[in-house]
């Protein structure tokens, strides 16, 4: 027979487990959070970190390669603005763990994009960035994170940015560059 204490502990455990399960796809990264710069990999599978974190405004596009074009409209707007490279950097990070494609195939595509566009693109073989920054489940997702010059999160969006989010994200980058 259950005692009240055993019943209360059981309910608490079930509630806690429910919170864990429901929070698996939640984003823990929040505006105002200072982030680390964990070691990722470059397009040749060599250790690399995101350049300029803590010294420039940095927009990070963390994407499952299966949906890598999800926020291209925002990336295109930033690129078209020809922002001052001494104050701003855009970086793509391919989340290799979330795709069925072999890592080397993705790295080959990344190398071609780097050569063609002069882009900065890194790879994440094991959800390293998602874990370090609290991005949650990023399968079939693109996450945009805008950091200020002190490596503090100023904006985070998981999923496709709307037209108004693209405009406000752009305005935020410009404002942060002026500070």
- Main sheet overview: 5 strands, mixed
Which runs of at least 5 residues are low in confidence (pLDDT < 50)?
Answer: 1-25
The best one-word shape is globular
The proportion of residues forming helix, as a percent range, comes to 25-40%
Proportion of residues in β-strands: 15-25%
Report what the structure shows.
- The chain is α/β, with parallel strands linked by helices and 179 residues long.
- It has a single domain, classed as Glutaredoxin, CATH 3.40.30.
- Helix content is 36%, strand content 20%.
- It contains 5 helices and 7 strands; from the N terminus they run αβββαβαβαββα.
- The chain has helices at 4-22, 72-80, 103-117, 128-133, 163-178, and strands at residues 40-41, 47-48, 57-63, 88-95, 121-124, 142-147, 153-158.
- The strands form 2 sheets. Strands 5-4-3-6-7 form a 5-stranded mixed β-sheet.
- Strand 6 (142-147) and strand 7 (153-158) form a beta hairpin.
- Helix 2 (72-80) packs across helix 5.
- The radius of gyration is 19 Å and the shape is globular.
- The N and C termini lie far apart (65 Å).
């Amino acid at each position: 027979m259950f005692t009240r204490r055993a019943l209360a502990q059981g309910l608490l455990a079930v509630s806690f487990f429910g919170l864990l399960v429901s929070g698996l796809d939640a984003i823990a990264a929040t505006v105002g959070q200072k982030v680390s710069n964990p070691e990722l990999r470059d397009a040749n599978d060599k250790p690399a970190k995101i350049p300029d974190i803590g010294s420039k405004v940095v927009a990070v596009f963390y994407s499952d390669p299966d949906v890598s074009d999800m926020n291209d409209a925002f990336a295109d707007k930033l690129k078209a603005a020809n922002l001052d490279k001494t104050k701003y950097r855009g970086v793509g990070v391919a989340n290799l763990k979330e795709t069925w494609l072999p890592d080397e195939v993705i790295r080959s595509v990344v190398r071609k994009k780097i050569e063609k566009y002069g882009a900065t693109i890194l790879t994440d073989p094991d959800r390293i960035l998602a874990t370090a920054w609290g991005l949650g489940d990023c399968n079939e997702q693109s996450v945009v994170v805008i950091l200020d010059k002190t490596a503090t999160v100023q904006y985070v969006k998981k999923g496709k940015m709307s037209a108004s989010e693209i405009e406000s994200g752009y305005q935020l980058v410009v404002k942060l560059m002026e500070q």
